[in-house]
Amino acid sequence: QNVIFKYDLKSRNWSIVTTSPIPRHDARMLATHEALYILGGYDPLDDTPLPLKESYKFLFRDEKWIPLPPMMHARSLHAAVVFNNMVLVIGGKDEENKILSSIERYDAFKNRWEEYIPLPEPRMAMGVVACRDTLWVAGGITSVGDNITLVDSVWCFEANRGNWFKTFKLPKPLAFPTLLCDGGQLMCVGGAVRVKKGETYILESVEDVYRFDDKKEMKWKKGALMPLKCHNAVASISGI
C-alpha cells in the first residue's frame, strides 16, 4: 500500500507520515532533518522489473513529495547514507545486472547528482554506516549468478584523507548485513551467508551480532545473538 509510518519513542505509538509516490522494491530510504528520500530500486508492478534512476524527496515542512533529477546510474540493492552532510548512494547493481563501484552525491543547492569518489571494487548488498567522521562499507556481494560471491572485506573512507583504505575484516563473508554506530563503536547485525543446498547455493539469514573492538584487540567480537535470523534488516540505536 506504499504507506510510510513513523514511531514515536516517547508515546510508543505508530502514525502515518505519508504514502510513497510510487511502489518500490530494493530501493533505499534515508532521512535528514528536512526531508525523506526514496532512492532507486525497481517497480514491482513492471512485467520485467529493472533497477531505476528515479528518486524522490518528501519535504517535512511542506508535506509533499517532489521528484529529484534522475541519478547518473540505475541502482537496486545499493546503499544510501548521509555522510559529511552529503546524501550518497553507493554501489548496487544496474539495469544490465552489472555490480557497481560508483558513488553519487546529491547536491541539494544545485538539485543535481554528481559523481563522488568510487569504491575500490564493485559491491552490492553491503552494510554501510557513517561513524566517527568515517564512512564504513562492510561485506556484500561482488558477483552474481551461479558463482555468487560474498565478501568479508571492510572499506573505510575519511573525508579529510580523500581516499579509501581497507581495515579489519568481518568474521565471515556476509551479504545484507546491517551496520550501526553505537556511541562511536561499530556494530554489525544479522546478514546472510552462502550455504549449499543440494546442488545449488542459497543465501541463508543469520542471527549474529558483532561489535568492533578498536580500543584493545582491534577485531570484531561476537555479542548476544538476535532472537530471529534476519538479513537486510532496518535497525537503529536508541537512548530511550
UniProtKB/TrEMBL annotation:
SUPFAM superfamilies listed in its UniProt record: Kelch motif
Alphabetical UniProt keywords: Kelch repeat
InterPro entries: Kelch-BTB_domain-containing, Kelch-typ_b-propeller, Kelch_1
Gene3D superfamilies linked: Kelch-type beta propeller
Protein name: Alpha-scruin
Organism: Araneus ventricosus
Gene that this polypeptide is encoded by: SCRA_6
